[in-house]
Amino acid sequence: MIQAGKASAGGIMQAQGYKAEAKFKAHAHRYNEMLAKRNAQQARLGAQWAGIRGGIEQQDFLDEFHKFQGLVRANQGKSMAQINTGTSALVQLENAREADKNVAALKAQTSSQVLAQLERANAADIEAKTQRYYADVAIKVGKYKRKQALFSALLGIGEAGAAGIGTYGGGGGSSGGGAVE
After folding, report:
1. Distance CA 12, CA 154 (A)
2. Phi-psi region at 105: left, alpha or beta (left = phi > 0; alpha = psi -120 to 50)
3. CA trace torsion 107, 113, 119, 121 (10° rounding)
4. pLDDT band at residue 139 under the 50/70/90 scheme
5. What whole-number distance in Å separates Cα of residue 137 and Cα of residue 134?
6. What is the model's pTM?
7. What does the alpha-carbon distance between residue 121 and residue 94 come to, in Å, rounded to a whole number?
8. Which of 35, 39, 84, 88 is the residue whose CA sits 20 to 30 A from 114?
9. How many CB atoms within 10 Å of residue 58?
């Protein structure tokens, strides 16, 4: 019977250990899920900010370009050149083409930065879902291990009890029935 008690206690202790382990693992995965969700939110905000910052950079460039074009016209006017004809017009047109290329490059850079941040957000969302899945799996595995430990304890009790029947009693005539002298 002592063996049965030991088996029972050991199995119960092991089952409690598995339950605690599962809770700890699930808690760790849920914490990682929370961090991943926060990272996704930060990346989305980063994407918004990249778009805003890119728009500001583009507007600043255009403002500077318009100032520059105004200075070019003013200098052409001081030199008595016809402002919107001939070489003067070609200079302004070439400046405008270069400005268009620069604005297109700024837009492409902004789009690239926004897409990179959105990709980071998507990756973080996937990580959050993965961590949630791992937490759920940890709980399920812990339950199965706990049940297995309890079942093993019950099996141990049964085996110890079965072994005890042959050892401790009822074996048929070996107690007190000696030969008559």
Report:
1. 10
2. alpha
3. -120
4. very high
5. 5
6. 0.65
7. 41
8. 35
9. 18
